[in-house]
Amino acid sequence: MVSAGETEEETAELMKEAIELHLEGLKEDRIPIPKPTISARYEEVMV
Questions:
Q1: What are the CB-based long-range contacts (under 8 Å, 24+) for 3-7?
Q2: Which of 3, 20, 27, 44 is in Cβ range 3.0-4.6 Å of 15 for a Cys bridge?
Q3: pTM of this prediction?
């Protein structure tokens, strides 16, 4: 998932809303909610 906002706080709120919506969809479709995991990756790009 990706979210972008004007500020860090706005981005965090948009991320939370996206996750909540995704979990609601899983529940509606009776798909098990996976256990939480954390994954991050950073790539440096030369411009």
A1: none
A2: 3
A3: 0.67
Give the total number of structural domains in the chain: 1
Q: How far is CA 16 from the centre of its chain?
A: 7
C-alpha torsion sign, points 23, 25, 28, 32: negative
Q: Helix (H, G, I), strand (E, B), or coil: what is residue 10? A: helix
Q: pLDDT, tens digit, for every residue of 1-47?
A: 678 889 999 999 999 999 999 999 999 999 999 998 998 888 999 98
Q: Which domain holds residue 18?
A: 1-47
Q: Give the whole-angstrom CA distance, residue 40 versus residue 27.
A: 26
